[in-house]
Design goal:
The complex is a heterotrimer of chains A (259), B (318) and C (361). Helix content of chain A is 35%, strand content 25%. Chain A has 259 residues and is α/β, with parallel strands linked by helices. Chain A has a domain at 5-93 and 170-254: P-loop containing nucleotide triphosphate hydrolases (Rossmann fold, 3-Layer(aba) Sandwich). In chain A, a hairpin with a 2-residue loop joins strand 4 and strand 5 (71-72). In chain A, helix 4 (119-132) crosses helix 6 and helix 6 packs parallel to helix 7 (182-195). Chain A is globular, with a radius of gyration of 18 Å. Chain B is an all-alpha fold. Chain C contains 13 helices and no strands. Chain C has helices at 30-50, 54-76, 79-113, 119-123, 137-168, 171-185, 189-204, 211-236, 239-247, 252-280, 284-289, 308-317, 324-354. In chain C, helix 3 (79-113) packs across helix 13 (324-354), helix 5 packs parallel to helix 8 (211-236) and helix 6 packs across helix 8 (211-236). The chains are: A alpha/beta (259), B mainly alpha (318), C mainly alpha (361).
């Protein structure tokens, strides 16, 4: 299931604008990797390049390699749609499909790809995914209700259930808790520690305590000035980053002396 | 950290994306539909040209009226413009006032309903306006026309003799004014709503009355929107057919006399009236006049859209 | 009427001392009303003397009332406030003026059309009818056939164009199509009719009259309306939903078909319904492409076809002798047409209310 990702010399462009430059990093399977850094430094852009989601924006493209278990995601014969089936994503704001019930939201990955499944199989998958997202007990009696009727935290867990229902190898999370209250945030963080047993997780966060709490590895992104590309300044085990970082810039950022 | 923003020599990222057959087919269909729009517009022009061509090269005496194509179409163009301009002159101030009323004067809760009432005017089919114009409005205007002839007859516009049926150019202009009222007021309302409340509050905070606020903050901001809306209304009035065909009593050529029973027809109404009974070169002549109408409305609409869109760009930047 | 809520301008006692020539006085709320009431009474008294009709009575009342308000305000409140009040009166009157055609039109059509709004009107054609009786059965069915055909042509083209503009197109092609759709919205309906006629006459010979020609003409008018409304609605679908779908490994076209369109379905339904309402009353293009018949013809590929607006037009303009029976039928046809259009407008509103995605929030 979980796979490792090796990124080498990755440059990410929006049109002619170089947004992220020269990223080299190895992301370990069955672990949580956190990406921190100031706004606009390219961490979300980098995250989206891991499942080729950034291509959705016209003019966006990359140079360099992203290799997942030996396969270059940007190889000439690789279909971005297949990449996204292997690398799931959870977004900053919960975005359940408003036209679908809770059940249909979880089954969406299968349904929208029109995979033929028997009803009982699908039922199993939905239950498994909702249990995996710690949401089953809260919604099992109202699976046919609209997904948008849940609270924000529940919606975000519904989105996680939807993402893991397609059984990806890697799960990307783009500030998954920034729109949630502390209690929902805690629930998601607990969930992440459970999910790392099965998936490779990469999370972008603005909350340094969160990075310290949940992740094994942490990467710090920064940019040297407006209009300059973002760079990965330091990538180290989380403990080291938060206690004894290699770079002065990392220490400044973490201790709040940034800028 | 000494990175420089460079443009890569050749973008290898493009062109190597794999696309699924489903995506290709769907995107192709969508693009085809879009291009079909271009084809239709080109087709409208081309087919009108082809069918109008025999009339363009025909000798003058074979065109109805024996005077050639230009002298056949000229009074029609005149009538079309005259009716549309009357409509525009009547409708624009009224529409602006209505937009102000709904936006700034009417009680908040009533405003939406009142706006809907004005929009209803746009939903009524044009032939029904024709019915209303000839049976309700025209007879009611006869006394007014007699009064105008008696008291303002020295102005060529009201020289008379006043029509006894009321089916005059002025009546047509008024009917058209009612018909284009909703579109002008809808666009005016839209641009008035876009006036930043900061501007309005700033004016009020300076001690301006409501009217002074509108003059200082709303009008300067909304002017080009109103002009664009009026142009769109003009485009609609130029092409309006059935109401004119039913209401207007047609005879005679170019005249500025608005209240007599001898009026030039409009292009659209003339086509509707003549086409069903025509054949041969007469049809080609009518299509040639339709081509003229198409060109006029096309120009007016392009101008209007350019004005309205420039406004949209501007407000989008705010 | 609307003098109640005034701008929060400094007024009366709470205001700083008046500067310059400005006076601090303020008219009581009831004063403008009293002015208009007084004007009405005055004009009412003059009514028998001056031989007025109702329109003139209203006109004189409004003018006199407005002048009275202005004069009073100028005396008490100063010229700036007086101008403000004058404009208020004018703006309210303008709205009143605009309502006159609406109400008189509806009243006229209903009162004249109700006469023949009977079972016979909906169940008989005009075959063998001279004078009394008969109905618009053939024309109503013809309108339904043509409208259905038009919808069938316009909705797929319009919807796909809107999808292209919102989801795919970039750069010059997008700008060109957007601009031309705008221009196409302004094509006069009679020109659309001429185009369809010219198109078919080129292949089938002159003098041709077919249902399908009318449907093509109406499509030229309907497609831009569909594109416009569908485009607006598709733009409202949040990008987050598209991204959520892509992130699940769903191809773009399936995302559009299964996520974007279902999310926008209420708006699309409303837009299409309003577009139908826009073309269902069109007369001019049908007049020159379909002609008219007295018998029922439901085959759009064979011969002339009656439609409701053209039926109304010919019943009114060529009524025969005696004219009153045909004129009655014309008014009833106009009434049915208005009911059809208003009904479609109501349906459009219901669609947008009941089919909107339920957020539960």
């Amino acid at each position: 299931m979980a796979k490792r990702i090796d990124v080498s010399d990755l440059d990410i462009y929006y049109g002619n604008f170089l947004a992220v430059e020269g990223v080299n990093v190895s992301i370990e399977p069955r672990s949580i990797t956190a990406l921190i850094g100031p706004s606009g430094c390219g961490k979300s852009t980098f995250l989206r390049s891991l499942n080729r989601m950034h291509e959705v924006i016209p003019g966006a493209r990359v140079e360099g390699k992203v290799v997942m278990d030996g396969v270059d995601l940007y190889g000439s014969d690789v279909d971005p749609v297949d990449v996204r089936r292997q690398v799931g994503m959870v977004f900053q704001r919960p975005n359940p499909f408003p036209t679908m019930s809770i059940y249909d939201n979880v089954a969406a990955g299968m349904r929208l790809n029109s995979k033929k499944m028997r009803k009982s199989e699908l039922d199993d998958l939905v239950e498994r995914s909702l249990r995996g997202a710690n949401l089953w007990n809260e919604v099992k009696d109202r699976l046919d209700r609209p997904g948008a009727g849940l609270s924000g935290g529940q919606q975000q867990r519904l989105c996680i259930a939807r993402a893991i229902a397609v059984e990806p190898d890697v799960l990307l999370m783009d500030e998954p808790c920034s729109a949630l209250d502390p209690i929902s945030t805690l629930a998601i963080e607990d969930l992440m520690t459970e999910l790392k047993e099965r998936f490779t997780i990469v999370i972008v966060t603005h909350n340094m305590q969160q990075a310290a709490r949940v992740s094994e590895q942490t990467g710090f992104f920064n940019l040297s000035g407006v209009g300059q590309p973002g760079r990965l300044i330091e990538f180290n085990p989380t403990e080291k980053i938060f206690s004894n970082p290699d770079q002065k810039a990392t220490e400044d950022y973490i201790s709040g002396r940034f800028g | 950290m000494s990175s420089t923003r460079t443009t890569p020599p050749s973008p290898p990222g493009t062109g190597r994306s794999v696309r699924r057959p489903g995506d290709r087919v769907f995107a192709g269909t969508a693009k085809g539909a879009g291009i079909l729009i271009l084809v239709i517009l080109a087709g409208v022009t081309a087919f009108l040209l082809v069918e109008a061509f025999p009339a363009l090269i025909a000798p003058a005496e074979e065109i109805p009226g024996d005077g050639g194509l230009v002298s056949y179409i000229a009074p029609l163009v005149f009538g079309t413009l005259l009716a549309a301009v009357i409509a525009l002159l009547v409708a624009t101030p009224l529409a602006v006032a209505i937009a102000l009323f709904i936006g700034y004067y009417a009680p908040r809760r009533l405003a939406q309903v009142l706006g809907y009432l004005v929009d209803l005017l746009a939903a009524i089919p044009s032939i029904v306006y024709g019915f209303w114009g000839i049976f309700w409005l025209a007879p009611k205007l006869v006394p007014l026309y007699e009064w105008l002839e008696r008291n303002l007859g020295f102005i060529p516009l009201f020289a008379g003799p006043a029509s006894t049926t009321g089916r005059t150019m002025l009546t047509v202009g008024l009917v058209l004014a009612v018909m284009i009222l909703p579109i002008i007021s809808a666009i005016s309302r839209e641009v008035f709503l876009q006036v930043p409340s900061l501007h309005r509050e700033a004016a009020l905070a300076l001690g301006a009355t409501r009217w002074e606020m509108i003059r200082m903050a709303v009008f300067p901001y909304g002017r080009s929107g109103v002009v664009g809306g009026a142009m769109l209304g003009l485009g609609r009035a130029l092409g309006e057919t059935m109401a004119v065909a039913i209401v207007l009593s047609v005879s005679g050529g170019i005249t500025f006399n608005l209240i007599s029973s001898g009026n030039p027809s409009t292009i659209a109404a003339n086509i509707a009236l003549e086409f069903p009974e025509s054949s041969g070169l007469d049809i080609n002549t009518l299509i040639a006049s339709g081509l003229a109408l198409f060109v006029i409305t096309f120009a007016v609409n392009m101008l209007a859209r350019a004005i309205v869109n420039r406004r949209a760009d501007f407000s989008g930047a705010n | 009427m609307t003098q109640t809520s005034t701008a929060p301008v400094a007024s009366g006692s709470s205001a700083p001392p008046p500067r310059g020539r400005e006076r601090a006085g303020r008219l009581a709320r009831w004063v403008p009303w009293a002015c208009f009431a007084g004007a009405a009474v005055l004009v009412g008294l003059l009514w028998p003397v001056l031989d007025l009709n109702i329109a003139l009575v209203v006109l004189y009342t409004v003018v006199l009332g407005t002048l009275a308000v202005y004069a009073l305000a100028r005396a008490v409140e100063g010229p700036r406030r007086a101008t403000d009040r004058l404009v208020t009166c004018l703006v309210v009157s303008a709205f009143g003026v605009a309502m006159v055609p609406l109400f008189s039109l509806v009243w006229e059509v209903v009162s004249r059309g109700i006469e023949r709004l009977d079972v016979e009107f909906f169940s008989y054609s005009l075959v063998g009818i001279i004078g009394e009786g008969g109905g618009a059965y053939h024309a109503i069915l013809g309108t339904l056939v043509i409208t259905a055909l038009t919808t069938l042509i316009s909705v797929p083209i319009g919807l796909m164009t809107a999808i292209f503009l919102v989801e795919y197109a970039t750069g010059r092609l997008k700008r060109a199509i957007t601009f031309l759709v705008d221009v196409m919205t302004g094509i006069p309906s009679i020109v659309a009719g001429l185009f369809a006629y010219a198109l078919f006459a080129l292949f089938l010979g002159p003098g041709i009259r077919l249902g399908i020609i009318g449907a093509v003409a109406l499509s030229v008018l309907m497609i831009p309306v569909v594109v416009r409304s569908a485009e607006e609605v598709l733009k409202l679908v949040p990008n987050e939903l598209r991204e959520a779908s892509y992130a699940l490994g769903v191809p773009k076209w399936r995302t559009i078909v299964k996520v974007v369109i279902p999310t926008a379905i209420a708006g699309l339904g409303t837009g299409v319904t309003l577009a139908i309402a826009r073309v269902v009353g069109e007369t001019a293009p049908l007049l020159i492409t379909l002609g008219i018949t007295n018998a029922t013809n439901l085959d759009p590929f064979e011969g002339r076809m009656a439609t409701l607006p053209v039926f109304a037009y010919y019943q009114l303009t060529q009524p025969g002798v005696p004219p009153e029976f045909a004129t009655d039928r014309a008014w009833t046809a106009a009434l049915v047409l208005i009911m059809l259009v208003m009904g479609l407008n109501v349906v459009a509103r219901l669609i947008s209310r009941f089919f909107a995605p339920k957020t539960g929030r």
